[in-house]
């Protein structure tokens, strides 16, 4: 069994009040906390703390791969899991800014062959998981694991996994469905004439110089410099791979590094990627009970004595877990946690929240 990390959160309370020598007190407290996490032996991955574009602390702990041996580094590439949905939402909004599509017309406008009830939904419904399209693709994956290794054109993937009867009227309620993103990808491909991967390069990674961010299909181990997934490292490493089918790239098939993810988030929230109107749409909560916006969540977190809006991006694919949070109010503090060893997402949330509390709490 891997060393439990949950007791570590309690032990770190003292670190918050001990600023590192030579650092601003609040930054020093956060650094002390995150350094303790990295040094504990209970965390395997990459930790990054930043203030706007400025990296305040960055740590790589443990192993990216056990055999062949590869230590974790800040350049290690991780699966982003469902953070891919947020990145795909950026592509949709960028295309909307260019006039290539609208989020508020039925997807049948772009996919006239999309028969049945699903043709009534809009991109807005798809990006917010309020479409009513059932999660048939996950049901299929649970019935037959070989579905994860299928290669299908968008039209066939929609026919198999996103063309069923709606569960409810579009917009009526929230239901987290990976099948939504099969349709999103098909619309992106139709209006641009190029794949999601090609749009990612053209619209985001190329212009922003994100050389370590891209898409993958199949086993993530095939990506150079990747962090392989493990169910645990002690007493013996247990590999845990979750192959990605090509028709789900928009939902979970994007990878990145800590520094690349920071650059992307800072560019987006700094207003250098989307129009002001599209950025407002990205940050708006459409499903209050779920804090859900477009492909991610925006939460109100008590920091420094008041509630602040925090973009909360979390993802999972097998053992890989991602948490990237950005304070939208004021000065853009960011915490990024990337791990390849199965870790309770609540633990990652606790670490990120403690770090943000540290930088917003005035020393006594």
Broad shape: globular
Named CATH topology of the largest domain: Beta-lactamase
What is the CATH architecture annotation of the largest domain? 3-Layer(aba) Sandwich
CATH class of the largest domain: Alpha Beta
Largest sheet: 6 strands, antiparallel
Strand content: 15-25%
Q: Give the strand order, joined by hyphens, for the main sheet.
A: 2-1-13-12-11-10
Order of SSEs: HHHEEEEEHHHHHHEEEHEHHEEEEH
Distance between the termini: 40 Å
The value of Rg in angstroms is: 20 Å
- The total of beta strands comes to 13
Quick check: average pLDDT?
A: 91
What does this structure look like?
The protein has 364 residues and is of the alpha+beta class. It has 2 domains: 241 residues, DD-peptidase/beta-lactamase superfamily (Beta-lactamase), CATH 3.40.710; 108 residues, no CATH class. Helices cover 35% and strands 18% of the residues. The chain contains 13 helices and 13 strands. The strands form 4 sheets. A 6-stranded antiparallel sheet has the order 2-1-13-12-11-10, sandwiched between helices. A 3-stranded antiparallel sheet has the order 5-9-6. A hairpin with a 2-residue loop joins strand 11 and strand 12. Helix 4 packs across helix 9 and helix 7 packs antiparallel against helix 8. The chain is globular and about 60 Å long. It starts with 5 loop residues before the first helix and ends with a helix. The N terminus is likely disordered.
């Amino acid at each position: 069994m891997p060393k439990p990390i949950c007791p570590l959160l309690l032990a770190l309370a003292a670190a918050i009040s001990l600023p590192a020598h030579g650092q601003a007190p609040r930054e020093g407290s956060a650094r002390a906390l995150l350094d303790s996490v990295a040094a504990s032996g209970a965390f395997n991955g990459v930790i990054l703390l930043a203030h706007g574009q400025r990296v305040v602390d960055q740590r790589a702990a443990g192993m990216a791969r056990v055999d062949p041996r590869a230590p974790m580094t800040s350049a290690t590439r991780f699966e982003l899991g469902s953070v891919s949905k947020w990145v795909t939402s950026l592509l949709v909004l960028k295309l909307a800014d260019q006039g290539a599509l609208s989020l508020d017309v039925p997807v049948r406008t772009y996919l006239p062959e999309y028969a049945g009830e699903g043709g009534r939904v809009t991109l807005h419904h798809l990006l917010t998981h309020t479409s009513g399209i059932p999660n048939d693709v996950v049901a299929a994956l649970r019935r037959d694991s070989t579905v994860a290794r299928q290669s299908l054109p968008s039209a066939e993937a929609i026919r198999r996994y996103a063309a069923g009867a709606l569960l409810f009227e579009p917009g009526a309620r929230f239901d987290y469905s990976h099948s939504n993103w099969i349709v999103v990808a098909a619309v992106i491909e139709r209006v641009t004439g190029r794949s999601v991967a090609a749009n990612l390069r053209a619209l985001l990674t190329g212009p922003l110089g994100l050389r370590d961010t891209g898409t993958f299909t199949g086993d993530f181990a095939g990506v150079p410099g990747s962090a392989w997934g493990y169910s645990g490292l002690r007493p013996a490493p247990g590999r845990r791979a979750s192959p990605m089918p090509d028709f789900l790239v928009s939902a979970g098939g994007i990878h990145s590094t800590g520094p690349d993810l920071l650059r992307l988030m800072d560019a987006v929230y700094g207003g250098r990627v989307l129009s002001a109107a599209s950025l407002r749409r990205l940050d708006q909560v459409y499903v209050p009970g779920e804090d859900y916006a477009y492909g991610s969540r925006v939460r109100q977190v008590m920091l420094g004595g008041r509630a602040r809006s925090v973009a909360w991006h979390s993802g999972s694919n097998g053992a890989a877990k991602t948490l990237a949070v950005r304070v939208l109010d004021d000065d853009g503090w960011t915490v990024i946690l990337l791990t390849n060893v199965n870790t309770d997402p609540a633990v990652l949330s606790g670490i990120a929240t403690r770090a943000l509390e540290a930088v917003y709490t005035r020393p006594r």
